[in-house]
Design goal:
single chain; 142 residues; alpha+beta; 5-stranded mixed β-sheet; two-stranded antiparallel sheet; 2 helices
Length: 142
């Protein structure tokens, strides 16, 4: 269905946690962009259906080193799609209480956010943190 093109650099880190259980974590250092699909998405879609949305609706490359984030109508479930070297990762998050502060569907194009904003979103915070420290762009110590 998709032309996979060249291999991409891995954007996930493997770590050994607790009782020898391996877990996979998102590593924002290698993610180039994060895109949110505004409004709701039918999360019955799996990898191929979500990749088709990225490619056909958003006109973006699902094989890039970007994260593509989708939310259900109830705003309590997310899926994150990412291409990694030779296959897709599909993360799924379900909140037991509360909802995600998800952007409404006023535009058809996805909303591009920073990896920092994605962490805020996953923590149940607004994308616009008024009290968050802004980035420092200093180039010299003295």
């Amino acid at each position: 269905m998709f032309d996979r093109g060249e291999a991409r650099v891995s954007s996930f880190a493997f770590c050994r946690c607790g009782e020898g259980i391996e877990s996979v974590m998102l590593n924002a250092a290698t993610v180039t962009h994060v895109y949110l699909a505004r409004g709701s998405t039918d999360l019955r879609k799996s990898i191929d259906g979500l990749a088709a949305i990225v490619q056909e609706t958003f006109q973006l490359d699902p094989f890039s080193s970007s994260l593509f984030v989708f939310c259900n109508r109830g705003r309590d479930k997310l899926k994150i799609l990412h291409w990694d070297y030779n296959g897709f990762w599909l993360y799924y998050r379900r909140l037991e209480r509360g909802t995600f502060d998800w952007p409404s569907e006023h535009h058809s194009e996805p909303l591009q956010i920073s990896p920092r904003q994605l962490r805020w979103l996953l923590d149940g915070l607004s994308l616009d943190q008024k009290q968050a420290y802004s980035a420092v762009t200093a180039k010299k110590v003295i």
